[in-house]
């Protein structure tokens, strides 16, 4: 049987992410479909990026489509909002990592190479973010899970703002020239922990080799309830394929930028 929501736990900073306990005994961070005006692709993006990152073995938090019935919304005061719309149906939910802190809290004195258990994934996150034109890898959108040995595991979170057009992408916005965001503190830190620039270039290969059929299947699997038009799905498929070819040049720019900090 699919899991169902048992108890509302808390609202996270920002107000759009809600922690809810489910019948499988786990707490999930739930982000609602179409809750804010002008953000109809936010949760679609969370889902797409989660799926694509999984295919590339990047550290997205395990996630699922979670069904929230009407009666749960009705009995939960936190979901009675006049500003936002909380409808029943399938939402995006990822596991709540309790023992974690945002990168923002450590940016002044960030973990060293040996502190980060999955350091080898940082180059991949950097290149992947360019592929999908992520414009939101701020210091609040990376969390560090505290491990029992004192080390950290880096998790990528919050993938609502990706692709040209961001929360509202469409076939039309996807045809615009992307503006790339690789200057940000997280990327600077990731770059400083690389063994070799080859870590970046070899991840390009990994993305290029990701079968186009797998990308197609991910786009096909967007829940029908989320109303992504066939025209937009087709345009996204085309965009992701074309973006593969842009990666060598962007990675070259990343290397130039972070090797010669101003
Ligand atoms: N899976 C998670 N585990 C632990 N904390 C999380 C998780 N997801 C989000 N958070 C926390 O909640 C904050 C808001 O979540 P986020 O997905 O970034 O939503 P928003 O779109 O509002 O920025 C994050 O900055 C982080 O502190
Ligand atoms: Mg965020």
What labels describe this entry?
35% helix; binds magnesium ion; Phosphatidylinositol 3-kinase Catalytic Subunit, Chain A, Domain 5; 2 domains; globular; five-stranded antiparallel sheet; binds adenosine-5'-diphosphate; 262 residues; three-stranded antiparallel sheet; alpha+beta; Phosphorylase Kinase, domain 1
- The geometry reads as globular
Sheet with the most strands?
5 strands, antiparallel
Q: Alpha-carbon distance between the termini?
A: 56 Å
Strand order of the largest sheet: 1-2-3-5-4
Organism: Peribacillus castrilensis
Pfam family, one: HipA_2
Domain HipA-like kinase: 23-243
Protein name: HipA-like kinase domain-containing protein
Description of the structure:
This protein has helices at residues 42-55, 70-74, 122-131, 171-174, 185-192, 198-209, 212-220, 230-259, and strands at residues 5-11, 17-22, 27-31, 63-68, 89-95, 100-102, 142-146, 152-156. The strands form 2 sheets. A 5-stranded antiparallel sheet has the order 1-2-3-5-4. A 3-stranded antiparallel sheet has the order 6-7-8, with no helix packed on it. By secondary structure, it is of the alpha+beta class. The protein has 2 domains: 5-95, 2-Layer Sandwich (Phosphorylase Kinase, domain 1), CATH 3.30.200; 100-259, Phosphatidylinositol 3-kinase Catalytic Subunit, Chain A, Domain 5, CATH 1.10.1070.20. It is globular. Helix content is 35%, strand content 17%. Bound molecules: adenosine-5'-diphosphate and magnesium ion. Adenosine-5'-diphosphate (ADP) binds next to strand 6.
